[in-house]
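Below is how a single chain appears once it has passed through the pipeline. First comes the sequence as given, then the structure the pipeline wrote out for it. We keep one example in the README because the format questions we get most often are answered faster by looking than by reading.
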Amino acid sequence: MHLGKCNPMAAIVLLSLAAPAAAQYYVPYYVPDFAGMNDAQKSEWACRRGNPTHPSEVTASTSRASALMQAYFETVRTDQVPLPLFIANDKTRWTAKGTSLGGKNLAAIKDPFAVAGNTLEPKPLKFVRSGDGSTALGQWQVRDAAGAPVGTYQALLRFKKTWLFSSIELIEAGAWADPVVQYCHVPGDVLGYRLAEGKSAVAEAQRRLTPARQAEAAARASADKARAAAEAAPDNAGKQAAAKQAAEKLRQAADVANGYQSQYDTQRAILDKAEAEQKALEDQRSAGRAAPAAQP
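Resulting structure:
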């Protein structure tokens, strides 16, 4: 099954669960049909699941990114122009406490963190490379002469023959900073993929559960009617057999419905977890809490 370029969530493989033929049902799982996927589609699937790039690539990227951040810190501290360290396009941004600069205006950067007495931690608080390998996101802390945290640089870097800054945001100590977590193409997108996939899975599970419960209710009504008829005529072999047959059909229908219920509950729990993570992140943003990584 082909994922396509932008929609790996469409890869739904229907897996048959072991059950009697009359009670067999199918449960949707969001797993790729690797036999029908090319290498690019397999990589995209893994990327959207939040799989990181190879550790050796992350290590090398971390070292180069930290060197670039140190070069930036020294450049702006000595009032030199940091333009060569940034990607040369209009989307490049430098942000600090309401000030946002881009393009050639980056030459006017006046960095309040890069002053005499302050030092930049050589290693990032947190660093990840995108699943597609094209960008990286990290946080580097700045401390004053007494060792107290002044603030954190949150930088997005893009690889253009070499690593360059796409954006730098200055976050004062104690201020909110989105956590640096593994992403695929843009920061924060893995949670979005999980939410989209989860909603699709729940909808599919519900679509299968509803008629299964309806069939169970119909089988129960038939079983109740057959049982009543058998009880009214205990010596009637035909009605006794019909009652047993109806009871068996009810058991099979209940097995099918319960199987779909279990799958629905599983998919609902997965979606609930993703939605809870999203809500917690939104609540933290609204409250302006500092990200754990930005604390001393």
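Strands lie at 13-16, 26-29, 93-96, 99-102, 119-120, 126-129, 135-143, 149-160, 162-172.

See the next section for the split statistics.
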